Amino acid sequence: MTVATGRSTPLGATFDGGGVNFAVHSGPADRIELCLFHPDGGETRETLPEVTSLVHHGYVHGLEPGQEYGFRVHGAWDPAAGVLCNPAKLLIDPYARAVTGPVRWGPELCGHLPDDSGAPDPRDNARHVPRAVVIDPTFDWGDDRPPDHALHETVIYETHVRGMTISHPDVPDHLRGTFAGMVCPPVLEHLVSLGVSAVELLPVHQFVSEHPVVERGLTNYWGYSPLAYLAPHGAYSSLGDTGAQVDEFKSMVRAFHGAGIEVILDVVYNHTAEGNHLGPLLSLKGFDNGAYYRLDPEDLRRYVDVTGTGNSVNMAHPRSLQLVMDSLRYWILEMHVDGFRFDLAAALGRGPDGFDPRSSFFETIRRDPVVSRVKLIAEPWDLGEGGYQVGNFPPGWSEWNGRFRDDVRDYWRGGADGTPAALASRLTGSPDLYSSSGRDASAGVNFITAHDGFTLADLVSYDHKHNEANGEYNVDGDDHNRSWNSGAEGPTTDADVLEIRSTRRRSMLATLLLSRGVPMLLGGDEIGRTQGGNNNGYAQDNEVSWFDWGNVDHGLLAFVQRLARIRSEYPVFRRQRPEGLHIPGRYAHDICWYSPDGSEMTDAGWASGDSRSLAVLLDGEANPSQGPDGEVVVDDSFLMLFNARAEPTTFMLPEGPGWSVELDTSGGRDHGVEAAAIRQWDAAPWAMVLLRRPGAIRN
User: Fold this and answer.
1) N or C: which end of the chain has fewer CB within 10 A?
2) DSSP string, 382-425
3) DSSP codes, 294-358
4) C-beta neighbour count of 452 within 10 angstroms
């Protein structure tokens, strides 16, 4: 094999039709060997012949897509200085577009000997680590176009590629659990019926199962242990992991777009699978440990950890920032994805003085003509000091609205913290969180449940987690689920308890989908998915986490589909700007709030912790629009009755034209019931009732 000089850009392995260019960054390396693997198991090594600005590069004529490769870095081994070059360890290209094979755990994966000497481990690890794969970048995208839904028109569905399809009876066996399975007709039809405009996929970057998890006989199911930021996870491909996973992912995106559904990726740029100072040497550690990770300034052998995983990516270093930005651009330009949800995003904005919304990471994205135009969603917290940053991300970003989750849960739980005032702020798009930074309601991604925690069915059924199957003695996962039994005091029957749970579930779903902001539905909540009380299913790649398509709650599914149609059909639920606010977070010019007796809410009423019922008028007349012939079109108005009490509550209805019932979360009455002849309406315990008054067209 002859290696020519080649080019220093782009980084990674680039096939041009005649051969492959290899380029990889390493500050401390004296030289880097390119390792090519052959079908017979043999390995050929050649030194990359040229170094340009710390990028080692070379070109090999005649290589084709499918070639498996890795690198070995020669240089200093000086852990006290944060330098970990060990040529005995085959390293995965940080810019690998595809990765093949599993991690086989053993002592060979560590860069150092297991004794206290700190000396480098001389054992070759090539049989224990995955290999990068050269890919063919060409793909027929046809007439693919991004759906480009406005944020305020977006409904997000958070789901898992494997879990959603692995047991679906109408997905062909060989496609279950794969990218191709996600876009089979029955899956697409289900998503379209829910009004979903974007799927948010749990991590699909190549990831590994951590050693402690494997030792317990489990696997990393969620995927928050990334290994290669440009490679789709090979195990999610029905065609194998030797490069075909790239085209299969692209085909999935193309099919989603054809159905009008955007693809948002849950990305984990805050840490990697290499863990702490005792963790494996797989990729970034061996190339440039100090550039890619935040090292402890008091002891450069160890890592700063604000992620709970052992390490934190050093976003203040130009090379780390370049890797993340190149990854983001690749997924947008080459893979056609429409946005990202950033795991533990507060960690990405941390500098020496803590979280900074003007950090180099946020500023680089703001100025980037590619990345700045897609949907950017932050998980606005990490595990470091001052890590909870809901409401503090810069313009252009949306955030998982943890305050929405907590306030809406507390209200429907009936606890003292769940006040009508807090509910009002969340219903109106959380202006208390976003208005001061010039952002509207679409800055908040509203949710009740997410992958991390109880499913909705379990939320109302369990007071405590049941994570025994995780093998961590049930100490993992948040156990702060306050009691949901306040609606079941006294001599209630099992049937009564089940009805209360069902009503509360529907009430929370209605609150989610009819609030201003961007709703996010946890995949499976619409069919009643349970995890048996496990609220941390990260290692449960089995029936605990998989969708149970054989046990669908069809009544609940129909209810969610109806909610989605209401949100889509009536713009009053999708207005975003909190114009005309009189009391921040409570009143907007098209919203009026009433006590059950029909009087407008007062300051005393808002301040009272005893008020558990309120009515909300969404006034369609407040925002008339102009029709195609110049006529004035008045939207329908809606009255939402909230009753977070264990007993029925009678509401006096505002005067005006007659109301009709659109939905009742208690399930006791069908929609369409006319209330024109009466001046009051009884809301069942723990129920939300939606009444509608038609708009008009005026010349």
Assistant:
1) C
2) -SSTT---TT-SPTT-EEE-HHHHHHHHHHHHT-TT--HHHHHH
3) -EETTEEEEE--SSSSS--B-TTSHHHHHHHHHHHHHHHHTT---EEEETTHHHHTEETTEE-TT
4) 17
pLDDT digits (tens, 9 = 90+) for 205-219: 999 999 999 999 999
The mean pLDDT of 283-298, rounded to a whole number, is 98
Of 114, 347, 154, nearest in space to 262 by CA: 154
Look at residue 25 and give its three-state secondary structure. Answer: strand
Task: Give strand pairing partners of 689.
Answer: 641, 664
Closest CA to 157 of 186, 177, 187: 187
- Dist. CA 663–CA 514, nearest whole Å: 12
- Half-sphere exposure in the Cβ direction for 582 (13 Å, CA): 10
Supply the residues annotated as catalytic: 343, 379
Structure confidence by residue, pLDDT tens digits, 76-98: 999 999 999 999 999 999 999 99
| DSSP label at residue 91 | B
With a CB cutoff of 8 Å and minimum separation 6, the contacts of 471 are 216, 217, 218, 539
DSSP codes, 208-266: ---HHHHHTT----S--SEEEEEEE-GGG-TT-SSSHHHHHHHHHHHHHHHTT-EEEEE
Work out the average pLDDT over 565-574.
93
Burial class of residue 661 in the structure, from the number of CB atoms within 10 Å of its CB (0-12 exposed, 13-18 middle, 19+ buried): middle
Average pLDDT (426-448) is 93
Token pair in block for residue 479: 């156990």
Cβ pair 248, 178 in contact under 8 A: yes
Q: Quick one: tokens of 354?
A: 């803590």
Which one, of 513, 503, 501, lies nearest residue 427 by Cα? 513
Q: Are 186 and 204 in contact (CB under 8 A)?
A: no
Instruction: Write out the two tokens for 81.
Output: 């200085």
Average pLDDT, the chain: 92
DSSP 8-state code for residue 674: B
φ, ψ for residue 471, nearest 5 deg? 75, 20
Dihedrals φ, ψ of 34, to 5°? -85, 125
The top-scoring range by mean pLDDT among 384-388, 535-539, 628-632, 692-696 is 535-539
Band of residue 35 on the pLDDT scale cut at 50, 70, 90: very high
Stronger pLDDT, 577 or 691, i.e. the higher one:
691
- Amino acid identity, position 527: I
- Whether residue 297 is preceded by a cis peptide bond, meaning omega within 30 degrees of 0, is no
> Residues 682, 649: contact at Cβ < 8 Å?
yes
User: Hey, what are 324's tokens?
Assistant: 């993340």
Per cent of the chain over pLDDT 70 is 92
pLDDT value of residue 580 = 34
Report the alpha-carbon distance of residue 560 to residue 550 in Å, rounded. 18
